[in-house]
Amino acid sequence: MICAEKFLDEAFYLGFNAYTGVPCSFLKPLINASIETDHLSYIPAVNEGDAVAIAAGIYLGGGLPVVMFQNSGLGNAVNPFTSLIQTFEIPILMIATLRGDPENEPDEPQHQLMGKITTQILDLMEVSWSWFPGNEDELTVTMETIKDRIIDYQKPHVLVMKKGSVEPYELTDQSKHKNDQALTIDDCVNETSDLVSRGDVMKMIIEKTTEKDDLIIATTGYSGRELYAAEDRNNHFYMVGSMGCAIDIGLGLSMMQPNKRVIVIDGDGALLMRLGAMSTVGFMAPENLTHIVLDNGVYESTGSQKTVSSILDFKMFAHSNCYRNSSKLNSLEDLDSLLESNKKGPNFIHFPIKAGVPNKLPRPLISPNEVAQRFRGNIND
Ligand SMILES: Cc1ncc(C[n+]2csc(CCOP(=O)(O)OP(=O)(O)O)c2C)c(N)n1
Questions:
Q1: Crossing angle between the packed helical segments 246-256 and 277-284, to the nearest 10 degrees
Q2: I want to staple 24 with a disulfide (CB 3.0 to 4.6 A). Which of 97, 105, 141, 333 is the partner?
């Protein structure tokens, strides 16, 4: 293992002064350390492709960028990487984690294929790559490679990071990680002390829905796991992976099943990743679709790094995308009456919630394929 600050110091010595990316639990120490180091900046991108393009801008502006993300997001990054970074020959350092490492113990199902093909994809993208250093000797060699490749030869380079490469680094001063207009973490705590938990929202949704009449999509992150923990039903689709696609799945589903109510339970980080999907929803205007975003302000399932949700008025955004109804709720009673009223959609509910999950939150024991087949079979029954 190496120390996060040591990596940042060595990279800074070479000129790398600006970080951007999307969280992965493996990256928590590096993200936290880059946020807290005064002479560095960290820009939280909403998706990996945006992170790559932000890095291009940093380079064009005279900086030297490092992009960090999970290999799940490599697909999101491919277009900006091939058509921007490679086309304009922009030298950036990318760090991609290796979830689903085929040489390690089996990871979650959504990581297995990408874990197997990550380095092959990098080869196909014609970018040089090497392993992220696991100790100080390797760090020296890595910095030489980076100097040679990025500084001297002016080409991008990728470091592929295996689990447990960096020692933990906890954030001590999260308020530094904010936009001037954004709420500070203290504001959030004051404003949100009465907020309900994600688990309580799930229980309410279960109470107000039936296997026969409702179809529920719960996004990747903790939403799927909390819905499953509240109750496992045939009309539940627990997403794993495809972060940001919950509302797209819900849209396709609602068009095919106009007589059922479709409820999409989103997370703030996941929704921000593909915010444009809300425009397609507004354009298609499915009357049977209700879109709920549970906004805890953080990417909780990857280590609680702040999302940029504090600057976005989700309710207004849904309204301006022509959702028929949009509201901001903070009580279960209001959610109860909104679900009861079953208004014509598309409906949008922004529900700020408090962070926190129960100890030992289970992962669905049912496999993704079984979830999909059971869900579809339930509709046909
Ligand atoms: C394309 C992609 N990028 C990154 C990840 C890693 N990841 C999984 S869940 C998650 C956080 C989701 O945040 P949010 O939607 O706010 O839900 P919460 O974790 O708070 O439940 C991230 C970054 C991923 N699975 N896929």
A1: 20
A2: 97
The beta strands (E) that lie in the chain are given as 18-21, 41-44, 65-70, 93-97, 128-131, 157-161, 214-218, 236-238, 261-267, 289-295, 298-299, 305-306, 325-328, 347-352
Determine the Cα–Cα distance for residues 217 and 270; give it in Å rounded to an integer.
13
What is the model's pTM? Answer: 0.94
Q: Tell me the pLDDT tens digit for each residue of 217-232.
A: 999 999 999 999 999 9
Cα 139 to Cα 2: distance, rounded to the nearest angstrom: 8
- Given a contact cutoff of 8 angstroms between Cβ atoms, the answer to whether 215 and 235 are in contact is yes
d(C-alpha 18, C-alpha 16), whole Å: 6
| 233 CA from centroid of ligand 1 (Å) | 23
The CATH code of the domain at 188-380 is 3.40.50.970
pLDDT of residue 171: 81
Tell me the C-alpha distance between 29 and 23, whole Å. Answer: 10
Q: Where in the chain is the domain with CATH 3.40.50.970?
A: 4-172, 188-380
Rg (CA), the chain: 21
The segments of the chain whose pLDDT lies below 70 read 173-193
- Binding pocket residue ranges, ligand 1, CB within 6 Å: 22-24, 70, 72-73, 76, 220-223, 241, 243, 267-270, 296, 298-302, 307
Q: What is the pLDDT of residue 191?
A: 52
Encode pLDDT of 38-79 as tens digits: 999 999 999 999 999 999 999 999 999 999 999 999 999 999
Q: What is the pLDDT of residue 380?
A: 85
- Alpha-carbon distances, residue 345 vs 254, 331, 348 (angstroms): 11, 21, 8
Q: Which two tokens stand for residue 35?
A: 């946020």
Q: What architecture (CATH level 2) is domain 4-172? A: 3-Layer(aba) Sandwich (3.40)
Q: What is the pLDDT of residue 381?
A: 82
* 220 C-alpha to ligand 1 centroid (Å): 6
